[in-house]
Amino acid sequence: MTRFAGALVERPALLIVAGAAVALTVASLLAIVLDEMRQDAFARARDAVQNLSLVLARDIERNLQIYEFSMQAVTDGVKQPNILRLPSDIRQLVLFDRSSNAQDLGALLVTNAAGDVVIDSRAVPARKLNLSQREYFKAQQEANAGLFISKPFGRMDKPGTAIGLSQRLEDAQGRFAGVVVGTLRLSYFHRLFDGVTVGAHGAITLVRTDGTVVMRRPYHEEEIGSSIGGAPAFQPLLQADKGSYIGTAAQDGTQRLYGFQHIGKYPLIVVVGLGTEDIYAEWRRRAWAIGIVFGMLEVFGVLMAVAFAKQFRLRRAMEERLQMLADTDSLTGLGSRRALDTALNVEWRRARRNKQNLAVLMMDVDNFKDFNDHYGHITGDSALKTVAQCILENIRRPGDIAGRYGGEEFCVLLPNTDLTGAVQVAEAIRSAVLATDQLHVTSPVGTLSVSIGVAAFDGDAMSGVTVEQLVHRADQRLYEAKAAGRNTVMPQEPHSQSAVLSGLAT
Predict the structure, then answer these.
(1) Which of 61, 170, 408, 409 is catalytic?
(2) Where are the domains of the chain?
(3) At 212, phi and psi to the nearest 5?
(4) The domain defined by 328-505 carries CATH number 3.50.50.60
């Protein structure tokens, strides 16, 4: 954790990257959660349409069974000659139970082979009607269709008001003898479907297995009796007794999640559809609300990361500034004593590790105390700046380091430089200072000058030489230069590397 905090201080941009990464991670997790919520909404809707279709199918099946039992009682009764010989009012009581007069149930009729109504549950004597052209009559006339459920029919001025349920009558020889037919008003299905909540874009459809629409909600009169058998959304209804699927309605083009259920043994299917727009409406509202809240939090988090990164950057800049001030001599612009000590240790380890030369120059401004006393401290400071400038102008390699060692004393580190090269650099610095012609009346040479001591390490890590010995040797030669009359570089003649090493070691 400490290492991470340190990395943030060193590289503030990492904080922004980390903030963005956290925001992206949270956004990904939020997307996963929202997707799971969406799947849950779909799963609940699928369960709902399947349950609704099952409940509606059972209600419709129960009513059809009740009516079928009544029709079967009539069918069995008309086969008994004794019942047919009863007085009309008694025969009505025997053939027709009270269920035949229930709400939404029309008349129960019995026809002969020609289609003429001979018995009518609602009238004695029977109304003069001929049903030979009805779909249910023709279906039973051609073959025993069992309980046949017709397409919606009605009066000419009000079509699609009922469906017919018919059974075939046969004589003793098995020949067609007529039908028993009852009607079920479509108002029953209309009222049943209106009692179910399916949302603004939902729909409920009762359809025959041949694709004929018996009832639909939302109700449009022109759709009753129409066929959807060729629509893609109808085909899945024939592939299983129950199920669910997503399809587009042939009537209004709305995409819905459909749940369907075949109604027992009857050729009817009830289909409940919930609009996908309604299914995801609540999820969409919650997703927007959650997304906006988390989005604001993430934006706030990123902004905070940017703000912290800016503060870290300012802190780093301030630390670098303080570091620079600590490592720089404020008067001369050269490195400070602290910076020199650090650089000396680094370069010494590098020289030993890589078996390279390292030279040290120790220099001192000649008779500087007298210069200060005679010309004043301001001029003395100017003289130190002049010397520093001469040093900088004569150490041109990027790795060369110069610093103020203390007072009027300076130090130069020359990595990968032998004694000969170091003496040449020292002579160049001494000559540059002398060439400034800075007046120094208390000096024997009459101008500003420096004395320089030079020592070098030859890269032999096995010699036993230490960095302290290297600096001490350069300092000794500085004193030798002063003793030789100042304005001098010591050694004046380069020695061999072995002599240097032996000199350092002694």
Answers:
(1) 408
(2) 95-185, 328-505
(3) -75, 130
(4) no
